[in-house]
Design goal:
Elements: H1 6-37, H2 52-62, H3 66-74
């Protein structure tokens, strides 16, 4: 059985640290993609929500980007 040992708490801390690193590695690029597409960068936080992340990816992939509309109007 697992008792309250230093090894167990180290694994727990390591788990949350690893999850934080992965979240940063995923959220930062999606944040930038949303900004470049013309949406709020904070929309990138939805990538952390299961099933909503798939909807977000399809939304970004198949919607008309406000940034491209703005660029077309500038020309």
């Amino acid at each position: 059985m697992m008792n309250e040992s230093m090894f167990g708490s180290t694994m727990w801390t390591g788990h949350w640290l690893w999850m934080l690193v992965v979240a940063i590695l995923v959220v930062v690029p999606v944040y930038r993609i949303c900004q470049r597409a013309g949406y709020s960068g904070w929309l990138g936080l939805l990538i952390l929500v299961p099933m909503v992340n798939l909807i977000l990816l399809y939304f970004i992939a198949f919607s008309d980007w406000p940034a491209s509309k703005k660029g077309a109007q500038d020309e």
